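Weekly structure sync, notes
Attendees: PL (lead), two postdocs, one rotation student
Agenda item 3: pending single-chain targets
PL asked that the sequence for the first pending target be pasted directly into the notes so everyone works from the same version. It is reproduced below exactly as submitted, 191 residues in total.
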Amino acid sequence: MLKTHVNRCSWPTKDEQYLAYHDQEWGRAVHDDRRLFEQLVLEGAQAGLSWLTILKRRHHYKRVFCQYDVVRLAAFTEHDVAHALQDKGIIRNRLKVESVVNNAEKFIKIQHDFGSFDAYIWGFVGGVTRVNQFEHNDKVPAQTDLSVLIAKDLKKRGFKFVGPIGMYAYMQSIGMVNDHLKSCFCHTECC
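Predicted structure, written out during the meeting:
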């Protein structure tokens, strides 16, 4: 149940799904590899689109992409990609769909090398959420030096659709950074 009569960040619309995402997920630490991969897929799909567009299609992505089972996704064939591209529930961009398969392969490699993707990605912040103290949305950056570093490292490892702006949004979404405004009830709840 959504809280009423509370201060929130100003970016979520009055859409119930958007408000629930803001209140219950955004900025909260995620350490489960499957959820980390899901968010990576969704951030890649969002490139050039609004987050609400992707959020409303989230359940379709989960279904089309095998509940984010990276082993199954890494084994996708051209036929599987073509089948996914027929599904009207997702953004049917071939490069974005192919990136899911590619990134699943690379994700598995990171899991092998680091023990988990969680250990890899959270290693960039020493395993601790960075809590920012922004008072206005116009002060929240679109990217940071750290998101540039993470994007470069992921690209070096062969990932696709992992630019610095998308990676900062990823960091926010998985709670590596808490960018809830100081006036938002989630600012202190997330940490």
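Discussion points:
- The chain has eleven helices and two strands.
- The first helix runs from residue 16 to 24.
Action: rotation student to compare against the earlier draft before next sync.
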